[in-house]
Amino acid sequence: MRVLITGGAGYIGSHTLIELLAVGCEVLVLDDLSNSSTVALNQVKLIAERDFEFIKGDTRDANLLVEIFSRFKPEIVLHLAGFKSVAESVDNPLSYYGNNVSGSVQLLEVMSKHKCTKIVFSSSATVYGAAKYLPYDEDHPTNPINPYGRTKIMIESIISDWCKANVNNSAIALRYFNPVGAHSSSLIGENPCGTPNNLMPLIVQVAAGEKDKLKVFGKNYNTRDGTGARDYIHVLDLASAHLSAIGYLKNNVGFSVFNVGTGRAITILELIEVFELVSGTKIEYEFVAERHGDLAIAVSDPKKAEKFLRWKAKYTVEDMCRDTWNWQINKPKIIKGLVSTAP
Ligand code: WQD
User: Fold this and answer.
1) Sign of CA pseudo-dihedral 331, 336, 342, 343
2) Exposed site from 98, 125, 242, 272, fewest CB < 10 Å?
3) pLDDT tens digits, 177-233
4) Structure confidence by residue, pLDDT tens digits, 253-284
5) Residue 239: CB within 6 Å of ligand 1?
6) Which candidate, 294, 292, 296, places its Cα nearest to that of 224?
7) Residue 324: C-alpha distances to residues 60, 166, 185, 196, 222 (Å)
8) Share of the chain above pLDDT 70, in %
9) Which residues are catalytic?
10) Residue 121 near ligand 1, beta carbon < 6 Å
11) From the CA of 79, how far away is ligand 1's center (Å)?
12) Following DSSP, what letter does each residue of 226-262 receive, concatenated?
């Protein structure tokens, strides 16, 4: 199967790319490298021992998309390209609407013109906003509280309408919860450009001595220990969910939404404890004020994906922490290009 993956050089994209290559897909990666690098793509070739085409570019570039669809003729698109920082989206909303929403519309227009009728979209649990009930199931009201989340729900609606307009079109939106971890080979992993906002990369910075201590945002939430609780999911589980989504689209039309999470929430202090145990490091931290817009708990009900995608998360929190730490230890060699072959 010929697959176009946008954002394929990114954290989720590169791990998903390995899965696509492993099952024999012919893949073209489109990525503007705004939050990724070709180092990850080179590592994917080492891990997968398969080649693929890479084009640096933006989904708003109509001419580039026409060239790709005319020549490569993708049968399905995995659309992972998009800006994804909540904080950045608040400061610079138009860049998020431009890149995420306009880019998706442009992609769908060229897909339609070239009769590419299948797309899997990288959405986010952020679309739910404040919880009316927990765990979040796919019927939970969507009320995102930041521009990043609003771009995701807008794109879901656009794709839904695209499916309604043509009975041959089929699409899935995967609502990711909190992706963490790295490939078990330690040859690729999260490598955020600039200062990370997410918890796990910040824990890693403290463990690696790059940061004195972690700021824990709030300690009076209604959770087991008062700190925020999240549904962390291993990036390899996330990657396999995309393969399950492709399988589902082979036999189903219309638009479907699936949560991609473990169904288990753990608190910040619990995650720190596991990370310390697995890495043998000490994570110093201090309690500070709650972060504006944060939820106490965000946890998925993954039953729909288990039933219809026949997908279920299998990695544990220990796996997530171990793979994250092993990648951190191995990353410098890779980034400096000292690792030339897979172990
Ligand atoms: C997790 C927990 C913080 C940093 C965001 C996006 C979501 C998804 C994942 C893309 C919270 C706490 C964090 C720190 C802390 N991204 N924390 N100190 O906010 O759940 O979700 O990233 O799809 O869309 O909204 O993730 O990692 O920022 O925070 O105490 O320095 O860690 O309060 O409880 P979040 P996060």
Assistant:
1) negative
2) 98
3) 999 999 999 999 998 777 888 999 999 999 999 999 999 999 999 999 999 999 999
4) 999 999 999 999 999 999 999 999 999 999 99
5) no
6) 296
7) 33, 42, 11, 14, 28
8) 98
9) 148
10) no
11) 22
12) SS-EE-EEEHHHHHHHHHHHHHHHHH--EEEEEEES-
Pick the residue whose CA is nearest to atom 13 on ligand 1. 199
Q: Where are the beta strands (DSSP E) in 127-265?
A: 170-176, 178-180, 214-217, 229-230, 232-234, 254-260
Does 199 contact ligand 1 (Cβ within 6 A)?
yes
Q: Which of 174, 199, 283, 288 to mutate to test the pocket of ligand 1 (most atoms within 8 A of CB)?
A: 199
Q: What separation in Å is there between the alpha carbon of 294 and the centre of ligand 1?
A: 8
| Total Cβ atoms within 10 A of residue 286 | 9
Lowest mean pLDDT among 195-199, 210-214, 235-239, 299-303: 195-199
Tokens of 41: 């793509």
In eight-state DSSP terms, residue 13 is H
**Does ligand 1 have an atom closer than 6 angstroms to the CB of 202?**
yes
Dist. CA 265 → ligand 1 center (Å): 13
Ligand 1 atom with minimal separation from the 178 CA: 9
Q: Which pLDDT score is estimated for 342?
A: 44
